[in-house]
Amino acid sequence: MTTVQPFLMFSGQAEEAMRFYVDTFDQAEINELHKYGMGQSGKEGTVQQGVFSIHGQTILCMDSTLDQPFTFTPSFSLFITCDQESELNRVFDSLSEGGEILMPMDHYPFSKKFGWVNDRFGVSWQLSL
């Protein structure tokens, strides 16, 4: 085994999600973006393979070529630790816009400030100071 990386499968929104995450987080970038072309197995223009990174953590993604009977679940989430409260608040506000707040930003026994949100794409994020 050489690596373990998160992998996100979208239903036609992978590029939009990648660009949203890169805009939301500091030190984030799209590393690779390969799209399906005409006559390939996926819908033309959707993401065949996407790679982006947030603070050095590589995340893979794609748009499914099939309609799937499932989507994201909060039982798997990306956990982000922020050094600055202002960054934590900014990221939480951005990710929760159009999404669903699972645990509001607050003080909890396990963190002086923590929030949990499903973003507008259904991806679950836990954010801690």
Automatic annotation (TrEMBL):
Pfam families: 3-dmu-9_3-mt. Coiled coil: none annotated. Residues 4-127 form the PhnB-like domain. This is VOC family protein. It comes from Natronobacillus azotifigens.
